[in-house]
Write a structure and sequence with these properties.
Largest sheet: 3 strands, antiparallel
Number of domains: 1
Strand content: 25-35%
Helix content: under 10%
Length: 53
């Protein structure tokens, strides 16, 4: 079974894309990804530390 997630507290995908996908069955596989380090307001954080948050 696949579950896709796009957290509401980060910028939404700009293409047919998801930030997280979880595949379950006999085992569990979770893939996390990202396109751009943008906040919800379509701005890039000014520091690397803020980008990690």
């Amino acid at each position: 079974m696949k579950k896709v997630r796009n957290p509401e507290n980060i910028h939404p995908p700009v293409a047919p894309y998801v930030h997280q996908i979880e595949v379950t069955g006999p085992s569990r596989w979770l893939t996390l990804s990202g396109q751009l380090g943008m906040e919800q307001m379509v701005m890039c954080p000014k520091t690397l530390l803020n980008n990690w948050k």
